[in-house]
Amino acid sequence: MSSHREAPEIAKDPVADSSDLYAFVSPDKRDTVTLIANYVPLQLPSGGPNFFEFGDDVRYEIHIDNDGDGRPDVTYRFEFTTEITNPNSFLYNTGPIDSLDSKNWNRRQFYSLTRVADGREHRLAHKLPCPPCNVGPLSTPKYADLVRQATYSLSTGERVFAGQRADGFFVDLGAIFDLGTLRPFQQLHVAGKKIFKAEGEPVNATDRMNVHSIAVQVPLERVRRRANRYGAADQASVIGVWTSASRRQVRVLGDRGGADTSTGPFTQVSRLGNPLFNEVIVPMSKKDLWNSLPPTEDKRFAQFVEQPELAALLPALYPDVFPNLDKLTKAKKARADLVAILLTGVPAGLIDGFTNATGDVQADMLRLNTAIPPSKRPDRFGVLGGDLAGFPNGRRVGDDVVSIALRAIAGVTVPLVDKTFRPDAAAAAVTPGLSAADVTAPFLANFPYLGTPYDGFNNPPAAS
Known about the structure:
Structural class: alpha+beta
Radius of gyration: 22 Å
Number of helices: 9
Shape: globular
Low-confidence stretches: none
Distance between the termini: 32 Å
């Protein structure tokens, strides 16, 4: 849901669909920032014989803005190619895959990595192999070893990985899209109170699903603009991050088994900055348009941030639970708190010791203050929980972004800009009821942080 199938057209093109984006100061290497972009969402681990992969015809990019204009100052571009080693076999592998050059592996994928900065392109690496998908204990018996082999340290200071990972996003999709039901509050729902007598147990709909990740760990001096100092109060410490996928404008289908041909300039078909922005904020009729535009055009969508539809739905769906929010939305007062969180960054003076403002340009980006060190005891509610190293200051893999977003929309953050507003008691408790503990594959302490992908043999678990 963060951005899984968030727009009508990109839902038909999962290979180019950006599902989650993370940006955080690396807890195990604090002089670097880690950027992770997930694609190809909702993968069934047992989906053979054509297991999931990146698109050879898609250009994947992670962009960094370090001067607040909503335009990329640094871009990391990933481009993939696929090779078949045995054209006479239908199998993904014909035996155990114990190395990245295993002769048993029939369909291998490679990528090049290019850094674009100051108007110049610099090829950092060429034909780096991805690991295979996690097929099962007979096909990929030492999967962690394959991941280590596919994690590269470059001479320019970056570490890089591209391949399958466990989807670390946790959300109760089945409930939320059933008329906005939150199972911990289902008995208070306008329709749910007729059939539910008590709260329900949430279900992590994305658990045991895989994604494909591109991840890069970059020295801070390679993403920040030059400045005399990088304190927590200095704008030079703040970067904005988003990811995109682009395709050639023209595709000609091959006739009678002939190869397809793509030509023309690349055009953007997907992007993602803050989680849930296109999913929840942008109306259905404009979602495809949003995916095609750069962040500099996000002023077009500011009205939907200032008066989000969900803020009006919560009081309607949960009668008498959000009376103060109901008055606020009916007054049609622009939500300056959400504009700051999503479009400009939080200015200094609203939260003690914190800012991630990038300026006046309204642009949907993950804004990260790189001068704020990683937390020794991360709080899953991020800044709302008093943890300034968490969302919306960038995004860590364990941050509960759905609960944070719901609580912000419900009014918890309004007092930052309006001291007279009193949030409803329920606003600070609203949640789908999930956390990182509901992700079966544990997160890693080190790069690339997302857990080992689920294998097809053991998913779902066999009955004992």
